[in-house]
TrEMBL record:
Domain of life the protein comes from: Bacteria
Listed name of the protein: DUF6495 family protein
Pfam families listed in its UniProt record: DUF6495
């Protein structure tokens, strides 16, 4: 397995896609029930292969990631060759940017000396999707990039 097995909830959400996946391997519903009962190792392998296929599709589409904690924001933009980072660190312990109030404080105090903005870029390895998946495992989530765009414009000014 290259990534991670989907959760029970994710499998439930992708129920029809999983049925199509089994059908593409000429596995009927009855055969799948038999495999689950009598060939648990084969069933596990099928779940893992399907999970990797789903992850591969999701990661291929990922262009932006965010990892937000109470006093730090990490925004990632994935290009063909690099992962670009905008990092925001808040030195004020009373500000929690995961709340509306804290985020509003950040927007109004971007130039405050308690706010540090950093940028960085890292070359993507030979396995782009594995690089992205590693960030997801550390807590990042895939986004549409609005927050990245907001801070990118701010940094250009």
């Amino acid at each position: 397995m290259k990534y991670a097995r989907l959760t029970k909830e994710q499998f439930e959400e992708l129920h029809q896609e999983f049925i199509n996946f089994l059908a593409s391997q000429s596995i009927t519903s009855d055969e799948w029930e038999d495999i689950k009962i009598n060939k648990s190792k084969v069933a596990e392998e099928e779940l893992d292969v399907f999970s990797d296929l789903v992850w591969e599709g999701v990661l291929n589409q990922a262009k932006f990631l965010e990892h937000i904690s109470p006093n730090q924001i990490y925004l990632f933009k994935i290009t063909e060759v690099t992962i670009n980072l905008i990092a925001i660190k808040i030195e004020n312990e009373t500000v929690d940017v995961t709340t509306r109030h804290g985020y509003n404080w950040l927007q109004q105090n971007l130039m405050h000396d308690q706010v540090s903005l950093y940028t960085s870029a890292k070359a993507i390895s030979e396995d782009r999707n594995k690089d992205i998946f590693a960030l997801i495992q550390q807590g990042a989530v895939i986004t549409k990039g609005e927050l990245y765009g907001f801070f990118e414009k701010h940094l250009e000014n």
